[in-house]
Structure formats: structure tokens, C-alpha cells
Amino acid sequence: MPEAYIVSALRTAGGRRNGLLSGWHPVDLGAALVDGLVAQTGADPARIDDVIFGCVGQVGEQAGNVARNVVLASSLPESVPGTSIDRQCGSSQQSLHFAAQAVMSGSMDMVIAGGVESMTRVPMGSPVTLAKKADLGTYMSPNIRERYPDVAMFSQFMGAEMIARKYNLERDALDAFALESHQRAQKATDAGAFADEILAVDSRDIDGNSHGAHTADEGIRGDATLESIGSVKLLAEDGRITAANASQICDGASGVMVVNEAGLKRLGVEPLARIHHMSVMGHDPVIMLEAPLPATEQALKKTGLSIDDIDLFEVNEAFAPVPLAWLATTGADPERMNVNGGAIALGHPLGASGTKLMTTLVHALRQRGGRYGLQTMCEGGGMANVTIIERL
């Protein structure tokens, strides 16, 4: 069977809500990312077999099959198709899985997988909120309510609080983890660790004004302290989660080009990494965010690898309890996880986060000389994708 290789991996620097990417239409931002991948590899645009893009808020500017619209806004010809994926926060990680499966099957040779989310222009939860306003009902169907009679609505915030309590993670531990995320991200930025992975785009504020090239993640707080993080109010009166120890709302796009041996030969480039393993698991939708823990165990069992065989980990920092519980369960070395910071500092642009984390993982492995990297992230509805790559 053919292998699946990553030959290019790029992301935009994250933009805060109403920040330096808020003036971009998400379709055009995704198109800029696609054009960047094509330019970096020297690929013939007409030879791209498909564009698979993740996006969670598929409404408004992100409606109507955002992936196809990205193609039409890019340098790719009309003959290149596009399809949009919603596996919640794992949407573009699933896009990568589908792309890899396509080239491994031999039905395609060159696929772009990525994602885009403008959380400024399409606020989080817009599909549900707009449906509620229009009295179009809710996803909590009668059958779901019968199966989960004690749950009014599945909630990631409630799930994060449940994980914090289940794994005895007090607020001070969550805040300390959040501070380290900012410190690592600032250190990586200062050292130029993100230089090869960030696609420079024009910064545009919400009024469309340009502020030069956008090349640095806007959400990093290099001056953060435990005191400043600890001063942020709790989201629930008796809770442990705050906006400071949870991921930042973020605008951004990311993507990778995935090819098989035929695609490598056509491009004449050296691969960055090989896809070693892909899996996805469903789990309890009430605690919801715990799925990466058993999913990682399953992935390691399937591959015959131990946790110590993995050189670097990217575990999405949707909420601080998630990676902390993951560390406690897997026994992984915390010095190998999210080495350049995570979503608490860098932002979590929902549908773009999967290939955003993969882009950082690919480049961090190359910089540090590691062999294997593992990526996982919690997903709405109680799911988790796991991807293991081998640096080449």
C-alpha cells in the first residue's frame, strides 16, 4: 500500500478576536493558505486532486461548503474540488486523516488538508444560536434526551470542570499550566521557532485597515504572571475554569499538503514526515473532553509504540485540565508536550486547530531532531483523533 507523506505544512499566525486577522473574509484567508502550500512545493495547481478543509462554524461567511469556496478564491483552477469537514475541534485533523487515506488508497496522489475559522466574524456557536433564534430546534433530539435524561445540553465548559474534579486539578495547577503555555510560546517566538511554519499574510483589522505583515501570534502574553492569571474571574461560581486557563478565541487558517510516492515523484521534493498512524474514538459526550486519554492508549497499542518512544506531543489546550489529565494518565514527559506553548497562549481557531497543531509538530520535530510525534485533541460530542507521524 502507498504511504502518505506531508511535504508542506503552514499556518497563519493567530489573530485575537477583533484583532489583526478580523478584517479577512475566512474564505480568502483559507485561500491564502492554500496558495502558500502550492507555492512552497512548486505543485502544478491543476494536479491537486482535492481540498479538504475543516470548519466548525459553517454558517454565514463559512457556509456553502467553505472548502470549495476556498478553492474558488485561490489560484487553483475550477477543476479542483473541495469538501468541508466538521468533527468539531478536530475538524482539520480529520481532514488530514481523510487526505492521507485518499493518497494511501491510490485514488488520489496530491491532496491539501487544512482548516479555517474566523471566530470574530462567525462567533463560536453561531449555527446553534441562529437556529435557536429562528426557532428551528436543537440537536438534542428526543432520542438523545431519552439516552441522557439528566443533561439539558452537552457543554464543553461543564466537561472541563468535570475533568478538573475527576483528576483533582485545583485552580492553582490550572493557572500554573496556563502561565507555562504563555512562557513557552513567548520563548519559541523570540527564538524564531515558528518562522518556518507561519505564512505571512497582510494584517487587516475589523475595519479593513492594513497594519503590515502578520507574522506573530497575537494572543501570547509574554508579561503574564500567576497573579494576573489568578485575578481572572471564574466562569462558574464554584468552578475552577477561567478564560485565562482555557484556550483563546482566535482567527486563523492552517494546512498541509499530503502526497503518496507518485505525488513525491511528480513534485520532486523531499517529504517532511510520514503518517505513521491515524485513529479516532468516541467517548462519553457529557464529560466530553476526556476522549484523548483512551484514544492515545488505543493508538499506542495499535502501533506497538510506548509513550516513551514518542519524542514530542501536541495535546490541544482547549482547557488546562485536558492536557494535565492526559499527562497524569499516560505518564508522558511534560517536557515533551506542547513544547512551544499551546492554545491557551497561541489560540484555538476551532476548525483550523488540527492542522495548526500538526504544522507545529512537524516543524518542532525537525528542529529538535526527534523521530516520532503524536497529536491528539478533545472534540465536541466526546471524540478524539490521534495522529502519529515519523519525521523523515
From TrEMBL:
What keywords is this UniProt entry annotated with? Acyltransferase, Transferase
Query: Quick check: keyword Transferase in the entry?
Result: yes
List residues traversing the bilayer.
none
Start and end residues of each Thiolase N-terminal domain: 5-261
> What SUPFAM superfamilies does this protein's entry cite?
Thiolase-like
Q: Does the keyword section mention tRNA-binding? A: no
Annotated Thiolase C-terminal domain residues: 270-391
Extract the NCBIfam families matched here. AcCoA-C-Actrans, PRK06504.1
- Which protein family is it in? Belongs to the thiolase-like superfamily. Thiolase family.
Matching PANTHER family = ACETYL-COA C-ACYLTRANSFERASE, BLR7806 PROTEIN
Protein's name according to its UniProt entry = Acetyl-CoA C-acetyltransferase
Q: Which species is this UniProt entry from?
A: Salinisphaera aquimarina
